[in-house]
């Protein structure tokens, strides 16, 4: 569902992302793991056609990010750490506004609203003004608006940043549920314990390079059952 080939991004002489190649299959959660500055956001922004690659390319649901950006956008949703939502609208109004961009209107919108509300347990959220919402409620609105068009690929960039224990739990549960619908997700985080719980395969990103890729279970076994230890061990091997 996602296939990156030699994907790179330079900012002048600085190589923020260097020749990434990886693939994410149908119904799979792929963990893009790495510390701050590793290049996770840059990678996801290129996949979402928000940033042009310096070289290389990728396909999303079979569409080339360079040649078919509109098709790519129709087939993906993206959630980043920011939770900017119009403060003076209710949850329902925010969703109706964004649904319009995808041509999800009228009866179809009402059906999709019911679908996201059930999936994300949005009771009490839809009719509340955004400015009166808790952080967890806002996050639900942000996720809901990114999946109203039921994209086969969902990109989550540090999506649990700033969430409390309840909101974090519901986000991780949502990731598993979305996968169970046969969707593909890229879960970018530096929180390895979250990746241990939800990721099927992982890529370790460091200094813009993919230094390891494989099934999450296999990666964990390299770290004696811990992805965090596996990550550090892999960096030590690369440095040696
Ligand atoms: N517009 C830009 N101009 C110059 N350098 C940039 C720009 N955007 C990002 N970078 C640099 O590229 C590198 C990768 O940044 P990126 O935001 O992709 O990392 P990240 O893994 O998402 O980390 P974080 O979790 O801190 O966001 C960093 O060193 C960053 O400073």
UniProtKB/TrEMBL annotation:
Highest taxon of source: Bacteria
GO molecular function: ATP binding; ATP hydrolysis activity
Family to which this protein belongs: Belongs to the ABC transporter superfamily.
Transmembrane regions: none
Keyword Coiled coil listed: no
Pfam families, A to Z: ABC_tran
All residue ranges annotated as the ABC transporter domain in the record: 2-232
Gene that produces this protein: natA_5
Keywords: ATP-binding, Nucleotide-binding, Transport
Protein name: ABC transporter ATP-binding protein NatA
Protein biosynthesis in keyword set: no
Alphabetical list of SMART domains matching this protein: AAA
């Amino acid at each position: 569902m996602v296939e990156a080939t030699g994907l790179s991004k330079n900012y002048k002489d600085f190589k923020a992302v260097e020749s990434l190649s990886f693939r994410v299959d149908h119904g799979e959660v792929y963990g893009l793991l790495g510390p701050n500055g590793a290049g996770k956001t840059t990678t996801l922004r290129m996949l979402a056609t928000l940033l042009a690659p310096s070289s290389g390319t990728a396909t999303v649901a079979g569409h080339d990010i360079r040649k078919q950006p509109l098709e790519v956008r129709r087939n993906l949703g993206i959630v980043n750490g920011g939770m900017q939502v119009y403060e003076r609208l209710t949850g329902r109004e925010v969703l109706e506004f964004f649904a319009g961009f995808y041509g999800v209107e009228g009866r179809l919108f009402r059906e999709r609203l019911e679908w996201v509300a059930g999936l994300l347990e949005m009771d009490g959220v839809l009719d509340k003004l955004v400015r009166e919402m808790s952080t967890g409620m806002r996050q639900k609105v942000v996720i809901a608006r990114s999946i109203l068009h039921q994209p086969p690929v969902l990109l989550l960039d540090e999506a649990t940043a700033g969430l409390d224990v309840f909101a974090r739990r519901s986000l991780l549960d949502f990731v598993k549920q979305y996968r169970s619908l046969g969707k593909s997700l890229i879960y970018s985080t530096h929180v390895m314990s979250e990746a241990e719980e939800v990721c099927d395969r992982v890529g370790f990103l460091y200094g813009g390079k993919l230094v390891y890729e494989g099934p999450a279970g296999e990666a964990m076994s390299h770290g004696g059952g811990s992805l965090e230890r596996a990550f550090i061990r892999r960096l030590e091997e690369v440095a040696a």
